[in-house]
Write a structure and sequence with these properties.
With 58 residues, the protein is mainly α. The protein has a domain of 38 residues. It is 57% helix and 10% strand. The protein has 2 helices and 2 strands. The radius of gyration is 20 Å and the shape is elongated.
Length: 58
């Protein structure tokens, strides 16, 4: 963060490369970081819970 005329401003720099030059796992990890791991974890646990409920009913 840098102070400019009394107000704080956030600066973010991200390197951009061709999709063809990036591996699948790198693209996925960037997407997971963008979504936020807590949301993904919560949704995954809800799905696992539903699967376990269905398995216990049969």
């Amino acid at each position: 963060r840098m102070e400019a005329s009394g107000g704080a401003q956030a600066c973010r720099i991200e390197q951009v490369t061709s999709l063809a030059d990036q591996k699948t796992d790198q693209l996925l990890s960037k997407q997971l970081q963008r979504w936020g791991q807590d949301v993904l974890y919560t949704e995954s646990m809800e799905i696992v819970n539903e699967i376990l409920k269905l398995a216990s009913q049969s």
